[in-house]
Design a protein that fits this description.
Radius of gyration: 20 Å
Order of helices and strands: HHHEEHHHHHHHHHH
Number of strands: 2
Distance between the termini: 24 Å
Strand content: under 5%
Oligomer: single chain
Amino acid sequence: MNRTWIVLLMAVFAVVVCAVAPFVGTYRIPVSILWQDGGEGAGDVTATIFWKLRVPRVCIALLAGASLAVSGMAFQAMFRNPLATPFTLGVASGASLGAAIYIRTGITLSLWWVSGMSCAAFLGAMLSISLVYGLSRVQRGFSAATMLLAGVALSFFFSSLILFIQYTADPTQTFQMLRWVMGGLQGNAGFGDVYGILPFAVVGTGIVAAMTHELNLITTGEELAASRGVEVDWIKKVLFFAASLMVGAVVAVCGPIGFVGLMAPHICRLLIGPDHRYLMPATLLFGGAFLVLCDTVARTVMPPIELPVGIITAMLGGPFFLWLLLVRRPGV
């Protein structure tokens, strides 16, 4: 099938999933809510659930899934490693550390429409990004191997600090920390968190989209890319910050939702091929729709309990990761 048609089918799939998801749940909502008089209906429970809970939640899931998927695609191309994920560089661990410190100190604050927890998590993610960049600059160049090693080392170090904070916290705070690191969207209400992710998602996705040609060359080899006039180190720095900031914003709002950035690029690569000019929009659309679908399952599979969506993605991602290890060709 023509690759353009596949991208269009991905767009249709994303639109259908996002259109249907707000109506699915333990509380049934009729389609007529869309044209009822009064719009959001301040006194109407059905309208409140639909417009103030489910629609913003679908928007957050769409933005988060698209951001994680595009970031995963960018990291896999940068490192030329099909097992690279958006959390490879320790961004999730840094954000989790920021959230753990916020919970442990008992501080209560907010910045405009962004909660204090999200602010603390984002600062933790920025700390991780800055440290990885600084460590990678210790040696000359901007080595992918150095970034990977620095990210893994920082991830382990931050995880040990989180365990220490959990051990010294009271049971309520420990449960809050554990619950946050599962990743989920059930704590998000209203469009405030949508606005928190949106600018990072738009700017980061735009940067990656503008560099699809360079990504194609880098995946063939840095030496070949440099011989074609690509400033490899500069491109890698821009992609590193753009993708990491997207991931940091998502983790700050939703917690660490794993495997979306691993599965979505690979599934799309199997369908559309390795050309990033087509792979990027397909990954963007599929990643967003995939997380919306997973979140819909998470909030309906065990009513009235809502599972953290991170559990659903991990249950799917674990077997997918093993399958990828078993079937991928050596050297790919």
